[in-house]
Amino acid sequence: MNILEEIIAHKHMETDQRKQFVSPRQLYALVAQKIDEEEKNGLLPNSFRAALQASKIGVVAEFKRKSPGKGWINEHAKASTVPLDYEKNGATALSILTDIDYFAGYDEFVQEARAVGVSLPILYSNFIVDDYQLLQARFCGASAVLLIAECLSKDECRRLLALAHQLGLEVMLTVHNECSLDYAALEPDVLGVSNRDLSTWTTDVETSFRLAEKLPREACKVSGGGICDAETANRLHAVGYQGVLIGECLMRQNDPGLALKAFVHELKPHAI
C-alpha cells in the first residue's frame, strides 16, 4: 500500500467515525441553516474561479503545517494569523489544509481564518472521498473544495462535483498525468495540475509544463506543488496557467506573510 492508498483508506474510516458524532442529516440541516443566513445577509462565499480570472498575479497561498513527505513544516503556525497575513500581502485566494492525521489540519482552521476577517476565497484542501466532507467544507466557511482525480473514479468525481455546486461550493479538480486528463471533460470550476505524485510524494514542476498544451484552453488552470520562486511562476503564467499554488516555501519562513509579499513583488502581471 502506497501513501495515497493509505490516506484514502484512513479517510473513509475517519469520515465514518465523524458520522457517528454528527449524522449526515444533522450536518445537512446545519449547512442549510448557514446557507439561509448567508442569503439573508448577502454573505455568500466569494468565487475562487472569479478571483483567479480577475487577478493579474494569480497566487493561491496555502496554510500547511505538515505533510506526509516532509513532516513538520511549521508546527506553531496559527490559522488566526497566517491566512490574514496572506490576504494583506497580495494573495489572490487561500488554500487551507484540513486533514488531521497527515497534515495536522482542522476544519476549525477555516473557521478561525473567517473569524479574524479573511474575506478571500478559501479552498478546502483535503482528500475528499465522501459527500459528508462537502458538508463539512460548506459548514466551516470554505468557498471551494479540492477533488483529486487520483483518489476518485470519474463517476465519483462527477457526482461530488454536482453536489458541491448544489451546496454553493466551487471545485478545483487536480490531475497529475496524461492518464487523468479525461477528467477535464467534467468541466470543474478550476482545473489544477499537481506536480506531486501522491503515490511516491515526489515533486516535479515540469509536470505542469508538459501538460500545459494538453489542457482545455478555456479552462481556468492552476499549477501546484514544488513552486518556490517567482521565475517558475512567471513561466507557468506564460504557458497558460491563471494561478500558482504555493505553500511550503512560504510556511518554512519565520513570517509567511512577508515571504508572500516578496514573492508577489517579483511576479510579472499577466494578461487577464
Keywords:
two-stranded antiparallel sheet; alpha/beta; eight-stranded parallel barrel; globular; 12 strands; 272 residues; TIM Barrel
What does this structure look like?
- There is one protein chain.
- The chain is of the alpha/beta class and 272 residues long.
- It has one domain (3-265): Aldolase class I (TIM Barrel, Alpha-Beta Barrel), CATH 3.20.20.70.
- The protein contains eleven helices and twelve strands.
- The protein has helices at 3-21, 24-41, 48-54, 82-88, 107-115, 131-140, 154-166, 206-212, 230-238, 248-251, 256-265; strands at 59-63, 66-67, 71-72, 93-97, 122-125, 144-148, 170-175, 190-194, 196-197, 202-203, 221-224, 243-246.
- The strands form three sheets. It has an eight-stranded parallel β-barrel with strand order 1-4-5-6-7-8-11-12, surrounded by seven helices. The protein has a two-stranded antiparallel sheet with strand order 2-3. It has a two-stranded antiparallel sheet with strand order 9-10.
- Helix 5 links the parallel strand 4 and strand 5 (122-125).
- Helix 4 runs parallel beside helix 11 (256-265).
- The chain is globular, with a radius of gyration of 17 Å.
- The mean pLDDT is 95.
